Amino acid sequence: MHVMLDQDQWEVVNALSLGDVLADISEKAHARSRLITSLTVDQRTITDRDLDSTFLGEPITRFTRLQAVSQTMDEVMRGASATIHQYADLLRHEAQGLASQIRMGDERLTSLDAWLGKLADYLELVEPNQAKARPDRAMTPWVQALLEARAQRDLIRVADLLEYELAPRLES
User: Fold this and answer.
1) d(CA 51, CA 16)
2) N or C: which end of the chain has fewer CB within 10 A?
3) How many CB atoms lie within 10 A of CB 18?
4) Residue 126: its pLDDT value, please?
């Protein structure tokens, strides 16, 4: 099987499985601080949904060519920038809506809990870079304060934190 990772090319021994070859490619990309962002086997584009145990266990003799493209995390983040900003806008609007609901006496916190899950996904992606670039936009201390207020069922503080601390930090 002919394998190509970015500009590097090599031939792979036929005794391996597709999973073995993909693991090798992943390690090579990782050694260069890169992530695999595109994968094609023969003429078929492969997504994460294709990577099940049956497909990964296939012998590479079934295939003739594998091409992988990698990017640095900075390149991935630049490419996702518009989507990240849209998601931040969505979270900001939801935070403002939650603050209004809480201020109107809605004590059900299931919507808040769901929002916190979305916020955690967002922060996992952007917080490490954002905290370095713009320390004034760091959200982790405010999330901690929100969790404490939620645990104490201090709904006024929850609403205040959503509206005045977290939502503004989600602005693009």
Assistant:
1) 16
2) C
3) 21
4) 85
